[in-house]
Structures are given as C-alpha cells and as structure tokens.
Write a structure and sequence with these properties.
single chain; about 200 residues; mainly alpha; 8 helices
Length: about 200
C-alpha cells in the first residue's frame, strides 16, 4: 500500500504532463486492442494465400474459387468477388481499387502511434525541464533547501522516464501492426499476380 501511495506522490510531482502521458498510454492500449480485433477479422491468413496461389498455379481454378468463398477476411472476399466477375478486363481494376480501400482501413490509426512515439519523449522532457525550473527557483540555499532542490530534480526526471516508457510501448505496437500489414500486402500481391496469370492463360486460349 505504501508503494502505491509513494508512486502516486511521485506521479503528481511530475506535473500536468504526467496526466497527458497517462492519457497517451491509455490511447496506445486502446489502439492496440482495436487494431488487434480488426486485423484478426480482416486477415485471411498466410496459409490461405499460399494455398490459393498453389491452386491457381496448378490450374485448380474451382478449388481456388471454393477456397476464397469459404474463407473469412478482406483478401478472401476480394478474390471471391473477382473470380465471380464475367468481364475479365475489369478484374485488375476491381482488385486494385478494393485492395487500396482495404489497405487504407488497415493503416487507419497507425499514424497516431507514430505521433505518440515522437511526442511522448518530448512531453517527458518538457515535464522534466519545468520541474527543474521549479527546483532551481530556490535561490536561498539554507538548511534543508539543498535537499529540496536535488529531490525536486529527481522527481522531475520521472516525467522523462514515463515519457520514454509510453514511447517504447507505442513503438512496439506500431512495429507489430506495420509488420503484419506488410505481410498482408505481400499476400495480396501474390494472390493478385496468380489471378492475373490465370486470366492471361484463359484469354490466350
């Protein structure tokens, strides 16, 4: 219990910047949870892309069509709709537009994480500087005031430490979803190229 009380005391000594950083940390957790649910719903999976590509290359077009129709996720939905189209010339344009819309939705809110990665250490530094200014405003160093100065500087440094922690958390979340987005884009490109190869083969007959 004493540890919690001391932690709250130190947190309050960091100034108003600490509350802004706390709000940023909650926002990072919210974005991480929301993006995890959304990516889990929209990600068709690497195994799906690999199987679809293999079916197309083996000219098992019916199997590929059934696979896309029975799989969840944004990529599977685009492929299923594309393979239903009767006009082959319109399929590449359809896939380009739909994939652009999907990628835009997947990238949504990731920009906020990159902003927090940059902003959080700066806010922590601002809190530390303001705390040090308050500490060194004590010019008349008499009995006990030197301790007050050093103690105030130590408490002010908490703002920088907290800002760095928030930035590290945001960076980790941003890196995870950026890597996952890159993998999903690679899956799209692989499946789209296979579908275009299928159409070029069918039109060449």
């Amino acid at each position: 219990m004493d540890v919690i009380v001391q932690g709250l005391h130190v947190f309050q000594k960091g100034g108003i910047v600490m509350y802004i950083l706390l709000a940023c940390s909650f926002f990072v957790v919210y974005i991480g949870a929301e993006r995890a649910l959304f990516y889990g719903h929209m990600d068709s999976g690497e195994s799906f892309a690999s199987r679809f590509y293999t079916y197309i290359k083996m000219k098992k077009y019916d199997d590929a069509r059934e696979l896309a129709a029975g799989q969840k996720g944004g990529l599977a939905l685009i492929l299923a709709d594309a393979m239903k189209g009767n006009e082959q010339a319109a399929v590449p344009a359809f896939m380009e537009v739909q994939s652009g819309i999907l990628i835009a939705k997947l990238r949504s809110r990731l920009y906020y994480l990159s902003v927090i990665v940059t902003m959080a250490p700066l806010l922590g530094l601002l809190g530390t500087i303001s705390g040090m200014i308050r500490s060194f405003s004590i010019f008349n160093v008499e009995s006990g005031q030197a301790v007050a100065i050093t103690g105030g500087v130590g408490e002010a440094l908490v703002a920088t430490a907290f800002g760095l922690c928030v930035a590290v958390l945001a960076l980790a979340v941003h890196a995870y979803f950026t890597q996952r987005l890159d993998r999903m884009i690679t899956d799209m490109e692989m499946c789209f190229s296979a579908l275009e190869w299928m159409q070029s083969g069918m039109s060449g007959r």
